[in-house]
Amino acid sequence: MKLGIVGLPNVGKSTLFNAITKAGAEAANYPFCTIEPNVGVVTVPDERLKVLHEMYNSKKTIYTTIEFYDIAGLVKGASKGEGLGNKFLGHIREVAAIVHVVRCFEDPNVVHVDGKIDPISDIETINTELILSDMEVLERRIQKTTKNLKGDKSLQKELDLLNKVHAFLGEGKSARAMELEEDEAEFVKSLDLLSYKPVIYAANVSEDDAAGEDNEYIRKVREFAATENSDVVVVCAKIESEMAELDDDEKAMFLEELGIEKSGLDKLVQASYHLLDLISFLTAGEPEVRAWTIKRGTKAPGAAGKIHTDFEKGFIRAETIAYDKLVECGGNLATAKEKGLIRSEGKEYVVKDGDVMHFLFNV
Ligand SMILES: Nc1ncnc2c1ncn2[C@@H]1O[C@H](COP(=O)(O)OP(=O)(O)OP(=O)(O)O)[C@@H](O)[C@H]1O
Ligand SMILES: [Mg+2]
């Protein structure tokens, strides 16, 4: 599952993407060997692994990763095929979620395509292209459904909903901002609309605004994002791309000097992970501590299958303890067992974020 980085030209997408790629290049254990040039891989920060690493005196720590896709500058008229428009929209269709980079920095040396810094107008320019493309999709679907309705009256409900979504988009609003019943949401999701994809707005600020109070631009972006229940992450792409060259200790020092608590890129990656509805379960031992990605709601055998297909096929049960509980016991499994904190879970167990798992299986 990939996230696509979108935004107007010259807002800092590639700068952010380079930070991601460089940070990812250090992820020594990245499982894929060939990767397209515009796909960046980054490890998902997880403080818990550091703690487990100390506890178990592990030889290796393996973080989980997510992929970002640098989708080149989208401009006004893209939905009409301008500026390689259709190609870009096609790329957006392929991603599960969107990171929308918004320029919130002033710099006379960096040209803005519209000549002024106006984050809301920028956001709307991009969103409008996605909305227009969605409206075309809906119009075709409405035509088809209207035709089929003659032979199948049960399609009326679907047609009503298609018209409702079309009208909503017609007001310039993204489909994800619609309030829908559960069954309606399921249908709308199946339409694969671009403006229904979950979004994080990445407010790209200047070095001076990377810490402390929100500037006026960030405040506007937050206001807008709230109208569609989207998240905002403040990031200075420039700082992040410089920092990506540093090792962990140097990074910590650099952040302290700037008075920044946590790197914007780390925050963005974590928010992206949540946006995709992904969680991590953990495995811990002396050879390695490791985080594994699963979709929220995955049951124990499915989680086991992430490690090895044999674990899933021959799944017997899982011994599991929540990360917090394990830490309470100082990482001592014997103590945890005595206290009854290690649970034995079967096939129906829904794995939770931070579960430390040990799978038992038949071969
Ligand atoms: N936070 C920031 N503060 C100051 N300058 C920045 C910041 N982020 C990016 N820049 C500068 O803005 C310029 C444009 O950045 P970048 O090339 O990343 O944009 P882009 O969105 O990828 O553009 P395009 O769509 O044309 O590919 C670069 O000179 C970059 O150094
Ligand atoms: Mg670029």
TrEMBL record:
Signal peptide interval: none
InterPro entries found in the cross-reference section: ATPase_YchF/OLA1, Beta-grasp_dom_sf, G_OBG, GTP-bd, P-loop_NTPase, TGS, TGS-like, TGS-like_dom_sf
Superkingdom assignment: Bacteria
Keywords: ATP-binding, Magnesium, Metal-binding, Nucleotide-binding
OBG-type G domain location: 1-255
GO CC annotations, alphabetized: cytoplasm
GO molecular function: ATP binding; ATP hydrolysis activity; GTP binding; metal ion binding; ribosomal large subunit binding
Residues engaged in binding ATP: N10, V11, G12, K13, S14, T15
Cofactor: Mg(2+)
Keyword Hydrolase: no
Residue span, TGS domain: 277-361
Family: Belongs to the TRAFAC class OBG-HflX-like GTPase superfamily. OBG GTPase family. YchF/OLA1 subfamily.
PANTHER family associated with the record: OBG GTPASE FAMILY, OBG-TYPE G DOMAIN-CONTAINING PROTEIN
Function: ATPase that binds to both the 70S ribosome and the 50S ribosomal subunit in a nucleotide-independent manner.
Name of protein: Ribosome-binding ATPase YchF
Species whose genome carries this gene: Lentihominibacter faecis
Protein's gene: ychF
